[in-house]
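TICKET: design request
STATUS: open
ATTACHED STRUCTURE:
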């Protein structure tokens, strides 16, 4: 596959992935409020997994299926030919496809670099961190935190005036919030969302979808903390009101990352997602993954047609059974050659099907299937050259005084192929 064809294929897959992203992310963005009121914030947050799942299925690798097709009789020398049908017709000019792919890759690299620089700049803004407990650190500033930050080992960063600003109950609620983020691996999901944001840097819904995903993540975490029953909604709301928005890191879970404060406080009044709603969301994701995987498998199919030129061969054969006189026959193929009346070394009645195939040059590849008493006994293979005899013996073969060989128990088959 040339570079232009590869670029066209990648752009085609990106176009399908962008369409899937638009449908899934757009549907969740439009229906998120109604869904949250119906199934709860935690189940809604789980449904966001459908977006990366759908995009990943669009990147399913192509797989090939070989289909043998017999071509008409050729007047010239026979040869096996192979033609491959592409998975999808290329609708993009090769030169334009390469240029567009280069522009997209530059955009991905630029957005990834900006994300890394922003993350490093925001983490430097914490100043010197002071340990305040197990995986808990105090920032040098009072306008940053509380938040969970850092991969692959997340840690909780609290503002410098954490002990003075919050009461003991509010501190426990905030720590429970950040530990819930860490337990559920939300930072890894944020990293996946950032990857999608970089990949779809030119998509008009990418930034909005990421913001709403992070907002639903915070609402789901709030619901999970209150569902434990250890923290009162009033105390939790007071902690939210005392928290400053501050800077929002690309890869962080902040207690107040600039999300709508009113929406979060109103969400505290709703009941948490029941267990059956959370299980239903997971089952729905599993069903979507299975159905999407089946569709992706079918869409990525490449049928490779192996055309076998139909040629005619003249075969002269001599068959000797149990050392008896040889039976001579001549036939003109194509097709399989069937032989019956054979016997093996154990005296069983046998029959054989021979499938000769003319290869490049003057070589004939003969595949044989021997069936004795209704069961496949052997599948020998014989390579012969046009005009030269080739012998295969099944059974007990003995050398004679004159230097020849005789199959005393079983059969001996000599073949010679020529073109008619």
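STATUS: resolved
RESOLUTION: sequence designed for all positions
ATTACHED SEQUENCE:
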């Amino acid at each position: 596959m040339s570079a232009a064809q590869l670029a066209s294929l990648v752009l085609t897959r990106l176009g399908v992935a962008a369409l899937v992203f638009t449908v899934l992310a757009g549907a969740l963005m439009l229906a998120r409020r109604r869904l949250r009121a119906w199934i709860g914030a935690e189940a809604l947050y789980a449904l966001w997994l459908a977006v990366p799942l759908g995009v990943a299925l669009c990147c399913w690798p192509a797989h090939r299926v070989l289909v043998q097709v017999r071509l008409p009789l050729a007047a010239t020398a026979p040869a096996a030919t192979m033609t491959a049908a592409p998975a999808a017709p290329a609708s993009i000019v090769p030169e334009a496809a390469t240029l567009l792919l280069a522009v997209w890759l530059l955009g991905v690299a630029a957005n990834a670099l900006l994300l890394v620089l922003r993350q490093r700049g925001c983490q430097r803004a914490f100043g010197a961190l002071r340990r305040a407990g197990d995986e808990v650190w105090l920032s040098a500033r009072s306008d940053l935190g509380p938040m969970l930050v850092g991969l692959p080992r997340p840690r909780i960063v609290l503002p410098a005036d954490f002990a003075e600003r919050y009461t003991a109950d509010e501190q426990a609620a905030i720590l429970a919030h950040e530990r819930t983020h860490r337990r559920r691996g939300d930072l890894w999901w944020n990293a996946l969302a950032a990857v999608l944001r970089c990949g779809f840097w030119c998509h008009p819904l990418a930034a909005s979808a990421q913001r709403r995903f992070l907002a639903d993540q915070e609402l789901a975490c709030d619901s999970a903390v209150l569902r434990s029953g250890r923290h009162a909604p009033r105390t939790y709301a007071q902690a939210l009101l005392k928290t400053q928005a501050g800077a929002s890191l690309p890869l962080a879970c902040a207690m107040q990352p600039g999300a709508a404060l009113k929406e979060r406080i109103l969400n505290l009044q709703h009941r948490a997602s029941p267990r059956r709603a959370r299980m239903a969301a997971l089952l729905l994701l599993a069903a979507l993954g299975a159905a999407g995987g089946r569709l992706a498998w079918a869409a990525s199919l490449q049928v490779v047609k192996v055309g076998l030129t139909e040629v005619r061969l003249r075969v002269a054969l001599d068959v000797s059974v149990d050392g008896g006189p040889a039976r001579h026959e001549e036939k003109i193929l194509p097709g399989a050659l069937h032989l019956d009346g054979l016997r093996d070394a154990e005296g069983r009645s046998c029959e054989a099907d021979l499938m000769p195939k003319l290869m490049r040059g003057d070589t004939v590849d003969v595949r044989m299937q021997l069936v004795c008493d209704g069961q496949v006994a052997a599948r020998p293979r014989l390579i012969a050259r046009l005009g030269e005899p080739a012998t295969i013996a099944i059974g007990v073969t003995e050398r004679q005084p004159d230097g020849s060989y005789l199959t005393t128990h079983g059969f001996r088959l000599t073949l010679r192929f020529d073109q008619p």
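CLOSING REMARK: The chain is about 45% helix and 30% strand. Confidence is low (pLDDT under 50) at residues 73-92.
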